Each structure stands twice: as structure tokens, then as C-alpha cells.
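A favour between colleagues. Tell me how you read the following sequence-structure pair.

===
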Amino acid sequence: MRIALAGAGAFGEKHLDGLKKIDGVEIVSIISRTGAQAAAVADKYGASHSSEDLEDALARDDVDAVILCTPTQMHAQQAIACMDAGKHVQVEIPLADSWADAEAVVAKQRETGLVCMVGHTRRFNPSHQWVHNRVAAGEFAIQQMDVQTYFFRRQNINAKGEPRSWTDHLLWHHAAHTVDLFAYQAGRIVRANAIQGPIHPELGIAMDMSIQLQSESGAICTLSLSFNNDGPLGTFFRYIGDTGTYIARYDDLVDGREQPIDLGGVAVSNNGIELQDREFVSAIREGGEPNSSVAQVLDCYRVLGELERQLAANSATQ
């Protein structure tokens, strides 16, 4: 399996680290915003090709698939370009920053039949897999999810603290993780509400947001998001159910009394990104549909589109 990676930033390197652990995978090409960065990362991971232009990788006959870790605003267009070139593609979250663009990617996947997967990593974290397995077995029914997604990001920087060439977004990026995970664990979302705080004068985005969701099962979810939190960073999920309470922090899980849950045997790795990449490679090799396929996660973007319209309408009346 010969793979090109576009977007060799902080998250791109997490994928490259995961790919190195998968048998039979070769990292062929690195695409990044500058030639120097692309060349440096290519040298680090043993890729024979590097460039500033995705088209250079798509034109190569030794590239079977592409992983996109590029700016959000480029995801839909680049995913479609990959499939037009006959390449399987995994798009880092979010798939798009509009409902129309998300629908366009799904249409292209159906037209080509290629594997198109979206990086909804929470489906793959062993902590959330453990909960999902209990739900599927009828041993746990979710009543409520309480989720906090907190960062301290008052400047336009990435996870390494380096300047970004694009602006992150609480709704289309960070809320997408929870919206999809809640539907994956509790059923299709039938009600959604959102409010947001003031728009940052320089970044042009809301720095705080609150979202309420309800699934067809009756379960509810409360999601708080902030770029203003000067404290523990990341996303923390509290599952409150009929037979227990569980708190997931990325790949780790504890019960409601902070007692660790043994996740041994849940998956072949305890790294959600690696597991996500293994799913992508397996789907291509076996000709199947991966978990987190573009078709499976599409409804998440329907909900995000509805919330965006709601937020815009609320802003217009203020």
C-alpha cells in the first residue's frame, strides 16, 4: 500500500507515526505548504518524493492512496481531486465546512466507488470502542453525554504552538468529533441547538460555544467548547448510562469514580490514530467500506449545517 500524505504539520506526523507500524505500507510522497518542510518530513519518514503541490502526488502511478491533513477549507475540494485521480482518500476531520460540500464528496465517492474515509478518530479510540461494544451488546444504554472540548488558542497557532496558515473552527472542526460520536453511540440526532459567545475581532470566529443534542433513542448530549480555557486542554467525555458512568480521555477510560478500565484486548493498538489508519488500509485491501466512511459520517455534517444556520439567524436578530 503506497501512500501520500498532504499536510505535514502536527497532526500529519501523527498519521505518519501510525503508518510506520502497519505492515506493507510505504510512505511514498509528502506534500506540505513549503518545499523545505515537505522535504524535511520526507527525509524523516523515508518518502522518496516531496512537493508543495498535491497534483504532483496525484499524477504519480506509485501512489495508491492519499491522507489529507490540510486546512479545513481545502478538504472537500482536495478529496474530490484525489478520487478524480483514481486515488483512495482519507480526509482528516472535518470532511468539509459546509453541508453542500459534504454532499459533493459523498456524490463523488458513489460515482467512483473508491474508499473515502473521514478522520473521526473518536470512533477508533479504544476508550470509545469499549463503550460502543457494551452498547452493541445491550449491556449499556446511554442516557446522557457531557462533553468538554477546551483549548487555549487566542492566537492562530497549531498543536505545536506554531503559526497556522488557516483558522480553526469550534463548530465545523471540534464539534464534529462529538456530534458524530454521539450519533455513533446513541442513534441518529433528531434535535440540535447552539449558542455562541462573541466573535474574536482578529480571528473572526467564536471563541466559546454551547451545543445541545438529542438522539432518536432519547439520549441527550451537552457539549461545551472553548478556545479561552487556560487549564487542562483537550476533550473529555462523560458517559452517563443505565448501568454505569464512564469518562473517556482520548485513549484512556475510567469509571465515574476515576477507577481505570482495562482496555486490553479492545484493539491491536492503544493509539486511535494508528487504528484509524489501519481501518483505512484494510478497507482498501479488502474492498470494503471502512468504519467512518464518508457515507457513514455524512449525517454529522447535516447537523453541523443546521447549527450554523441557527447561529447565523441568532446573530442576525441580536
